[in-house]
Design goal:
The structure holds 2 protein chains of 2 kinds. Chain A contains no helices and 12 strands. By secondary structure, chain A is mainly β. In chain A, strands 2, 5, 6, 10, 11 and 12 form a 6-stranded mixed sheet that branches. Chain A starts with a strand and ends with a strand. By secondary structure, chain B is mainly β. Chain B is built from no helices and 11 strands. In chain B, a hairpin with a 2-residue loop joins strand 5 and strand 6. The chains are: A mainly beta, B mainly beta. Chains A and B meet through strand 6 and strand 11 of A and strand 4, strand 5 and strand 10 of B.
C-alpha cells in the first residue's frame, strides 16, 4: 500500500533562512506527488506537483521540490523564508484519484 | 474563475443528529472528492464522485454518504452523528479524476462540531 511520511512534525526557521521539508513515500509504481499548504482556518492550496520528467519542479511562492527515486523522497525547499510562509505543509501521493497525505509539517517562522 | 465553494463554513450539531454539507466545484470540473481532517488521523479520503456516480470510496462507515448532481455539485451526508465526527470536511474538485488530470483543488472546508 502506498503511504507518505513527513518525519518532521514541527519546524522553526528564522525569516530569511532557507527551508527544507522532508517527504518520503512508499509506492510500487511511478508516483504522482504533490505538496499542499494550509493556512489556519483555510483549505489546501497546491504548491507544486510531480508527474514525470524533470525531477526538479518549480511551484508557486518561490517553492521547489526535487524527486529522488533512489531515496523515495520528494523534499520541498525554499531559499529564503518569509513570515507569511508560516503554515501547515502536506506532502501527498496519488494513485490516480484519491490523495494519500502525510501527517503534515507545521512551519513556524521567527523574526 | 471561481474556486471550490463549500457551505456552510461552520456547523454545530448534537450526537445522533444528521448533517448535510454542500460543495460546488470549479466550473468545468466533473470530479468531486471529499476528505475528513482531524488532528489525530490527519487527512483521510472519504469518497469521490464523477458524473453523478460514486467512483471511489475510502474506509469510512456507511453513516457517511454522498451524492453528485448533474451540474457536478456534490453533497455529503453524515447520519447518526458521533463525537468523533467532529472534523474539518474538505471538498476537492478536479477535471476528471484520471491520473494526468487529477490535480485537486480544495475548498476552504466545513468545520463540523458535534456536541
Amino acid at each position: 500500500a502506498q503511504s507518505v511520511t513527513q518525519p518532521d512534525i514541527h519546524i522553526t526557521v528564522s525569516e530569511g533562512a532557507s527551508l527544507e521539508l522532508r517527504c518520503n513515500y512508499s509506492y510500487g509504481a511511478t508516483p504522482y506527488l504533490f505538496w499542499y499548504v494550509q493556512s489556519p482556518g483555510q483549505g489546501l492550496q497546491l504548491l507544486l506537483k510531480y508527474f514525470s520528467g524533470d525531477t526538479l519542479v518549480q511551484g508557486i511562492k518561490g517553492f521547489e521540490a526535487e524527486f529522488k527515486r533512489s531515496q523515495s523522497s520528494f523534499n520541498l525547499r525554499k531559499p529564503s523564508v518569509h513570515w507569511s510562509d508560516a503554515a501547515e505543509y502536506f506532502c501527498a501521493v496519488s494513485p490516480g484519484y484519491a490523495l494519500n497525505f502525510g501527517k503534515g509539517t507545521s512551519l513556524l517562522v521567527t523574526p | 474563475k471561481a474556486g471550490v465553494t463549500q457551505t456552510p463554513r461552520y456547523l454545530i450539531k448534537t450526537r445522533g443528529q444528521q448533517v448535510t454539507l454542500s460543495c460546488s466545484p470549479i466550473s468545468g470540473h466533473r470530479s468531486v472528492s471529499w476528505y475528513q481532517q482531524t488532528p489525530g488521523q490527519g487527512l483521510q479520503f472519504l469518497f469521490e464522485y464523477f458524473s453523478e456516480t460514486q467512483r471511489n470510496k475510502g474506509n469510512f462507515p456507511g453513516r457517511f454518504s454522498g451524492r453528485q448532481f448533474s451540474n457536478s455539485r456534490s453533497e455529503m451526508n453524515v447520519s447518526t452523528l458521533e463525537l468523533g465526527d467532529s472534523a474539518l470536511y474538505l471538498c476537492a474538485s478536479s477535471l476528471s479524476g484520471t491520473t494526468h488530470e487529477n490535480i485537486q483543488y480544495f475548498g476552504a472546508g466545513t468545520r463540523l462540531s458535534v456536541l
